[in-house]
Amino acid sequence: MRLLIAIAAASTMLVAANAQPESAGEATAVLAGGCFWCVESDFEKLVGVTAAVSGYSGGDLENPTYENHEGHLEAVEVTYDPSIISYRQLVDNLLRHIDPLDAGGQFCDRGSSYTSAIFVADDEERAAAEAAVAEAEKVLGEKIATPIRQRGEFWIAEDYHQDYYKKNSVRYHFYRTACGRDGRVKKLWGGR
Asked: Is 4 inside any structural domain?
């Protein structure tokens, strides 16, 4: 009987040792980079990102709307698989698709609701964000204006803002080009 128990135990350990590791599942990050349509579009192109949702974060107003989101930034909640893409990679992507030197808004969109921010939920995310900012400062040779802020409530924007770049492709591309977003990013980051 002891032999059967030992064989069963050894068999269980062997199966456990050869089992595929479980996926870490999904995680979310909240990032702001000016117009949430553009940020959503940039993140949904990344392998490992399963969704990007436009919304508002950073303020105290409950149930903000596009017409009234005073104190909030236009932000995007990114759902991702951390076994494929890391939080640090998401922050790096944000910094390289915005003008992180601009504290007054992004591109043609001016004012506090269009400023950039990296929202962190814990010390691990803060360390990753700080490392990304330090690297960006080194590459650009200037102080990064994009702040690292404590993550709070994320409020989903109205339906007509979700996937705007897909539903209104021509308008979206005109806006993005006319606003100078891609031109400034290319000038700022070049091939870096």
From this structure: no
Task: Give the C-alpha separation, 71 to 60, whole Å.
Answer: 7
- Residue 43: both structure tokens together: 């993140």
* CATH number of the CATH domain containing 62: 3.30.1060.10
pTM of the model: 0.85
| List of residues 6+ apart from 32 with CB closer than 8 A | 39, 57, 58, 73, 74, 75, 76, 115, 116, 117, 118, 119
**Distance (Å, whole) CA 121 – CA 123:** 7
- Whether residue 108 is contained in a domain is answered as yes
Question: Which two tokens mark 74?
Answer: 């236009």
What is the set of active-site residues?
Answer: 35
Cα separation, 180 vs 161, in Å, equals 20
Residue 17 domain-assigned (yes or no) = no
pLDDT tens-digit map of 100-131: 999 999 999 999 999 999 999 999 999 999 99
Domain count, the chain: 1
